[in-house]
Amino acid sequence: MQQGLEKHGLEYRNNLVGQGYDGAAVMSGKHSVCRLLQEIGLESQGDRAVDARGLLAQIDLNFIGLLVMFKKVLGQSKFLSDMLQSPSLDLSAAVSLVDSLLATLQKYRSEAFFEVVWREVEEMAVKCDQSWEKTEKRQPKTNRRLHDYILTTSTGERRVDKNDRENFKRHIFYPVLDSMTGELQRRFSKRNCTIMKGIQALHPQSITFLQEDALFSFAKFFDSNVDYLTSELQQIKRLLDCKEKSGMQRFTTLLEFVVFLEPFKELFLELFRLAKTAIVIP
């Protein structure tokens, strides 16, 4: 198999190995895979040829459509996924990426964008010698014993939309977009995004460090006294400024900030409590 892939110039290690949402990695080698399977299907080795023909039979328009969708739609989530897994995660920036991704998915859920996707599906189908004209199947008939009766319930027959384009759009493309949108909205609800921004505002390396708006919204979820917190923020900024001028190095982690606040926890009661809360939130 590997020799066959290399024969057709397919860098399978780079093109066929990728994460589930990285459709581009799979699509880049699809033409060579089809050619290889076609050649194997003509071989005299029974099991090998049967397996190849079986795989080719499964590469239909839906399969090609899914690959295109992985590249154009699911690939958009890669930026957010990479940021959320980054050691230097910026939660505030992640919230912005979530909003951007939701807006993109909403834009994609349109007839105009689906036309672009389906055009690419048809072009790839032609390159892979994959026809989208289905063979007409025998139409099912109602049992003769039911001819003299009025049917008020289903007889088990399922009506299938013969239009591949409409079928893919209604049953795969739009449901995937709706599912992704719903899951993003559930995981990154307004409450969760507010908490993420609040945690980021307590990180010393963040550009939003000790930003009042983010911390006030965060504090309300934990019944903090915002009036006390306002005074504490003013005092801690002055204290940090004096310490840095005297030669103290700037903190690099939230934990270091909490350790610094420990001796002053009676003075910065609300801020210290929020910082400890931010550390233990998973």
Automatic annotation (TrEMBL):
InterPro entries for this protein: IFN-induced_PKR_regulator (IPR052958)
Top-rank taxon, per record: Eukaryota
Protein name: Uncharacterized protein
